[in-house]
């Protein structure tokens, strides 16, 4: 209404004869006309009537030669908002059109006539126009954006805003034409004119990281320049932390991608030199937080390097970590990297260097349990029994702790692998001393047997590969033979040199118990190996390796099953039988998982049938979940899931809610693919609902309602296609299932009423 009134007044103004008013009045009339048209244009845009807005702009264009700067700013601001709105909707072509109009309106005015807001508006319009041209992305538009940036740059010079535009222009260019040197040059100019604001700092870090993807060398140079020329002098801990950690992270990636050892060495030498300069500029080490953050990045990288046995590169990284700039990280951290240096020296078979590193460590680091373990390994390489026994003596002080025993077990295995019997016995004796009671000390034979058995158990518990488990199986055979000898000596009541009986009654009881357990060792080893292989398969990204792990796991599962079938009898302890059956049920789940990954669809039913002896509901649930997650063909999915459901249903106790969920998921999967199978599934649901009602443990009503609704809707689908016979069949199944819902027949009656209203051959059902 206001604009309508304004239109009438504008018409009255136009009716005034041109010569009847003075120039000042004419100027005022033009200004009012321009503001009126700007408001009309804005209203048309708000009402999403761009055709009317286009018409209004035509009138504005007629006024353009006579507009003053204030009117031009008002109109340009309106046109800018239209352009920005179109750009936000993804209509970049129209956005550019309206932004060009805004630019032409305001650019027609002399710059010295524009207000401060007008100058800001002009730059905002240019920014939107540049972005719009780049979003259009054609060769002409990109060139036009480049020309516009050049024009603005000639006016305002090397300002951050223009440099931002230049970066955006370069980023929009195709990858094969990307000018890395130009991109780096712009960032260099921005680093040189750094204004110490958080926004500029974050902006530079972001683009330097992007430059790293194209040229790691240029990115490192820019980051070094920013750090040394500005960040160190700023003394801002947060900035220093980000750049130092970022710089180290960049090197961890770059050194991994380096084409040769010489390239890696040069990169690390540059990093060492940079840290020297930063330390000299700060006159003190970095704070503990920054040092620990840097150490965390370096530690992870060293771990990955050592996995590839690149000991010389890992050694260079350890020296970086031990730089004086990280002195505040604490003695514990320095001890960790010192131990890594010893590992590198061992990897290079340089035991002399390993000894020098050890002697250069602090007393606390020297006495660390892992440091002494490494010196024990050095002793094995040099066959230095004195150093080995000294290491064992230090480790034996910690044998009463879990970590101490773990390390001693590792020492035993290391000594056995190289054949050093003296060090093996020293480690075994250390374990015995840790377990020795005040009443009696075990004999050498008893000690070896006990420690060996515990060692097998430890291997069994912590095995992470098939090799570890296989070695424990072989070791178990040797221990069994030792038990036979021990039994013979026990029957003869052997005595030691002092005439004391070697085996007491508790010892004999211990022998009998563990001899029985040794008979089951092979089973446990098969179980551990299979579990370890499944764990490795689940985390393996390479398909061929993953499939190989699953195949190997199935071989061990088969071995467990065969051994158990031949060896399990009723004379075994109930707890032992229960434990073995629990392991077997777990292995059946693993076997089922492996079969789905290997696409052995025909073998799934056999696994489910064999698993019946376990009578384990949790096992069937796991199999069902695994099957639903697989991409099995519809026929295999139906047959296997139906068998799983049948087996669960035969159990005395089972979870109706889980069972109903499986039926629902199966119906969703096969409905529309195999109508007969789906109908059989509905029959099974009816059977389960009927028996559940009789026993008072019905499936969840929500699941039953879903099945009823889905079944009835499927009948309606057939009705819509004119197929009467399947429509009747499915509708009757739905109404039959609805009888067991427990709502007093409400849903059943509703479905019957709906079905009765259907027309079949001109007659109602």
TrEMBL record:
It comes from the Eukaryota. Pfam families: SPO22. It comes from Trichoderma parareesei. InterPro entries: Spo22/ZIP4, Spo22/ZIP4/TEX11. Keywords: Meiosis. This is Protein ZIP4 homolog. One of its GO terms (biological process) is regulation of synaptonemal complex assembly.
